[in-house]
Fold these 4 entries.
Entry 1:
Amino acid sequence: MSQSKHWLKKAIILAMTFILTIGMTLGMLLPLNANASSATDNSLNEVKKKGVLVMGTSPDYPPYEFQKSHHGQSKDYGADIQLGKQIAKKLHVKLKIKNMSFNSLLTALNTHKVDMIIAALSYTPQRAKNVNFSKSYADAYINFVVNKQDAKKYHSYKNLANQSIGAQLGTTQYTMAKKQIKNVHLKGMDSTNDLVIGLKSGRFKAVPMEKPAADAYIKNTTGLAEVPSHFKGQTGQNATRCIAFHKGANSLTNAANKVIEQDNHNHTYTNKFVAAAGKKMGTAKNNKSQFSLWNYKDYFIKGLELTIVISVASVIMGLILGVIFALMRLSHNWFLHTIAVIYIEFIRGTPELVQIMFVYFGLGEIVKLPALTSGIIAIGVNSGAYVAEIIRSGINSVDKGQMEAALSLGLSKAKGMKNIVLPQAFKNIWPALGNEFVTLLKDSSLVSTIGVAELMYEMKIVQADTYEGVLPIFIIMIIYFIMTSIILAIMHYYEKKFNHKGTAKA
């Protein structure tokens, strides 16, 4: 009893030390980076030195930012994209666009994944505490998109009291709906396309959008209408669109302000950029031709290829980590055992999406990792914890006499484990490993949140370009089903082969 208490005390101390070390390290690094930026402002010189201005955006909000097919490749278009290109041109650098969910953009900016955000982003005093805002380059007016049969029922936000409303997370539309609509049942989503699908399926009574975006969806989607919101605070700072920069990046902000001032004087953004984006979007008739989705086959193929790359790399990483940490957890060395327990329980006790964002944004403060690499690492590390427990159960299922027999024949413990125990363990856990591989394949869709162009990401591009909501979802469901069926068939084939060998030897 005393030994178990002693071990438990050591485990708790080690776990607390581990958690506090990570927390203090990250907590110290983030403020240091922020202070360094404000103390010495080299933001403009740094951009010019690297020759690239990195812009973060969320391309699901036409006519501001959206994607269309161009010779089989997805390209970014929209009024905000044009503004970004114009600023880069004035600075004599190239523009690099990083796409991700709108709700991740400010995190990407604060962790220096992007140099600026142009994504129909509104100025708010709360946001201004953490970022530099440029001067306003456009005003915004928010309307509601509703189903056509409800257009006469709702005339302002007051008529939507006690109703279900959908709004994009992290937007001023979401904040206004939450604060001003009485007893609202508010549902936040990352994608505007998903909100429109929810609206058409009857899950929401209305979706607040800026007027140009609402116009675009109504023009290209049947059965929808637009009504005024009459939200309070639709003039002044609450309704202005600004570019966000790192806190303290004054020189880069000032350079952008010079471009914005000239554009505002010439009305370039409204008269030229927004108008050009509207023409580029096309019409519902053009986008929804009978064979339109077949024209997007390259998108699905590209997404499938990247999904397979992520899955294969993560499976290999998960298996390696699984074996290592399973053996560590079975070890009689209390230090190795405790490390394994902390790793397995911590990973299994936190959401995988949070882990992906932590690796990309959090560790990105220390090590600059591309989005694809971050996604593979996060999914592989997550899988490793589950595989470790599967392998541990498999090792425990092998009779202890097997190892004793190996040792009596002169084999070392390591060779006995490698040549005798592990092969039998893998045979026993083969079906469970198959289920884990299938789960990992499906979980690869989570990396779309950080801008990795796998199947889910490409599906959203097709949705935005064709204004088809459900059909692209159905297509990738079929693709995932085919892939998982192939994995299960392979696993089942080798399971039968293992059983046949075992029966023949018996």
Entry 2:
Amino acid sequence: MAVTIRDVAKASGVHVSTVSRTFSAPHLVNAETRTRVLAIAEGLGYRPNRAARALTTGRTHNLGLIVADIANPFFPPLIKAAQAQARERDYHVFVADTDEDPLMEQELIETLSKQVDGVLLCSPRLSNRMIEKLRAEVPFVVVNRRVKGLTTVLMDVGQGARAAIGHLVSLGHRRIALLTGPDGSWTSEEMRTAAASAAGDFDVELSVLGPNEPTEQGGIAAADKVAGSTAVLCYNDLVALGLIEGLTDRGLKVPDDVSVVGVDDSLPGRLNKPKLTTITMPTAAAGRMAVDLLLAAVGAGESGTPTLARLETSLVIRESTGAAPA
């Protein structure tokens, strides 16, 4: 037979209400008692009834995690880290993919808001105005997008873009292209601003080309756009890998004829030939931090103060960048 809350209470020598509070409001239970109850519950194999607890506490102990494209290698490490962090806090995570579609994103938020305590929005494509409107339905934490009044976790891709431009200039490149991503992308705007500033500092030519699909096909399609540039900084690793394929099909060699830099430091880039020089993004750290901040927002309710957390990035130099051609 399944172990019940009364079995745990009897074995622990406490009232049933104490066991209930241990799982629903642990801060209200004496630390020694809480530790004993949890240990006995674990030993007996007791698992609290989430539906019943939700009725008592008003919390589902579920979180929503919405990503722009689950097939993009950028997102799985973030999802995995967020799920692990949530489990440690006794929460479950529902993951949903918008396929880069802002209307689908809105629909998913409206649906999930009835089933979760909070939502993580990763690289959202919705307008800031719509996100601000939807925040009334459920607490949000946004990853890689600045929205006024919302807690945000940013990966400082601008820092990486400046390092990438400096690296390319050190190799003798004077005509550099930036392949941006989709319209409305915070990452694109950060890269554009930082790359333009660095190009001005180094007195080199920067061509900003976009928008582009954030996929390998987007990179292949951009191969003709970068003609005349000796180096290209791409929106992400997928675009960079597609660009390398497109350049190769046109008889150009990377990095002999054109140097290519990606963003993400994903596994495909590390396995590619040539191995991809890229800006590493702390996706796992962002996933863990976003969960912690979201649970803090859920606990604080409307009285919580929005937080801005910014994580550092860095440039990883591999084989896809080399000296500018003579």
Entry 3:
Amino acid sequence: MVRVDHAVTSGTFSLDGQTFDVDNNVWVVGDDRECVVIDAPHSVPGILQVVGDRTVTAIVLTHAHDDHVRVAPELARRTGAPMFLHPLEEPLWRLTHPDVPMPRALSDGEQIGALRVIHTPGHSPGAVCLYAAELGAVFTGDTLFQGGPGATGRSYSDRDTIEASIRDRLLTLPPETVVHTGHGDDTTIGAENGVARS
């Protein structure tokens, strides 16, 4: 039976010459034998503690800001699992991992385990969300939070684009869908419908 496991890891986020302390959610989706890791922020041991003795079949990166991909190559080496990232994230990937080849390409509509990829640009050009219909959940990275859209004040981001992504790609999901975010608390599509539209 597919389930969601969760941990919070702490570290920093750096872009445009500024660095901030951040707490990141780590989401692991799978059954008792296999799982998919969503994002690889700060601590490989912290992620592996959530994984347990399961086989990691994929490391899916919602976008390439350093606080979401920093330990992805090390996690891939430790687990043998492939990394996946949307190709439009390459400029951001290169900022953190200039000497590491780009992960495998994610495409809109692709299915990885229980997760369907939804391309939701705005926070960054290749940002994606991951919809698990059988779980009634969507993993939104930094696209949608409790209280509205993710930040768009930095390089490679755009406010109008993220608002369109949320309106057209996320708010069309069932209102009871649980939103598991990249930072902070869960919410639901229904709860955010009015907020994100305002």
Entry 4:
Amino acid sequence: MTIPRTGARAEPGSFRDPANRVFHLGDDVLRGLDERAAREWRALTATDFFPPLLAAGKVCATEPVDPAPATVGARWAAVLRHERIPFVSHPYEWSFAMLRDAALLHLEILRAALPAAFTLKDGSAYNVQWRGAEPVFIDVGSFTPARDGEPWAGYRQYCQTLLYPLLLGAHLGLDFRPWLRAQVDGIEPDQMRRLFGGARRLLPGVLTHVHLHGAMQRRNARASTADVRSQLRAAGYSRELALATVRGIEKLVRRLEHQPAASHWVDYQRTCAYTADDRAAKERFVAGALADGPRPRLVLDLGANDGRYARLAARHADYVVAVEQDPAVVDGLYRALRAEGQRRILPLVMDLADPSPGGGWRGVERASFADRARADAVLALAVVHHLAIGRNVPLPEVLDWLVGLTAPGARIVVEFVHPEDPMARRLLANKPEGLFPDYRRAEFERLLGARCGITRRLDLPSGTRTLYAAVAGG
């Protein structure tokens, strides 16, 4: 592959480890390594454990670039090229089962590395991404030689961004997503300690990883890292003990389970108002709109529910991101996709009226949903009325948002639910009369046509819903 010579852009979320930095250059994802990191990379590739992880897809595909392109800067001793993840997501957009699988992948990799005298510098949930329903570890720069007497440096990160959120869900039934969205470094032990007092201290994993962990942090608050390592070596802490600790955490994580409360949306395809004729016509329309033009690289299915149309879209596109607000629905969809070995549909939990903002350092360390979503096609099926009526978002702003999620010339497939539709009437019944005078088909069509070129329209047989296919900016 030829590397472009201009336009390298540093990844905003990769600045925390000065030994290596990730860059984007055209469609390539590159990682610059300093002298020490380059030596460790060469040692890593010579181990018996790392090549099998690459071959199994558990670690993102990585290869050296020689010669290194000057566009990433002269300071790097070596440059690697990684596979490009089709869509970068954040842990606060994952379901419980997704977070648990990400946590288990971390431990599996660490368990393989320790006997070969390697460890992971980090334990962050952000070091995992997804190929559809398959987790993949992306932070190759996190591998480093292990030394006897040194604890896993990533343990605190692992607890705060993976284990603690899982404990919240499994033991207390709490939604971990707001916690992770609010704090890029995850949940602090002191925050957890306040939630797990009294008899809750005895719940699996809590005493060791919340209370004892927090006590150790407080006791060593003024000690240097070197002092702590010296104390551990003197106490006989070894790589074998570290490996036993990892196995214990893995056993705990596998036992953690959370069943989200049932909701109306879990069985929506059976209970919704669509007739069989409506559903068949809708599927034909969506398939035709996606097949009309170049094959989309990325499709967003907004309000995806159980993934019916995401699966349809996957027949016509390289990759589909299925966004749904209900965690129980997304968890069920993820488990089904994982069982199928599906690698082209990524399910995410997100409130479309409150999509993920930018976060972390300067608000760009973790990119917002809008900044990540430059889709070639967007499906907005049975979602506009929920935003416009249910959440009081003006129709012009709904359409501006949809267009803003697309790449130039992208296709938009959108469904307008008429005011007389049973679902629209149900939503309107909870609102003051006359609050939405502009919520009419003619006005929606006018607004859509002002922003896009409408290429198709179809009234569903029931007569209260209309589908539109449009080209953004047309």
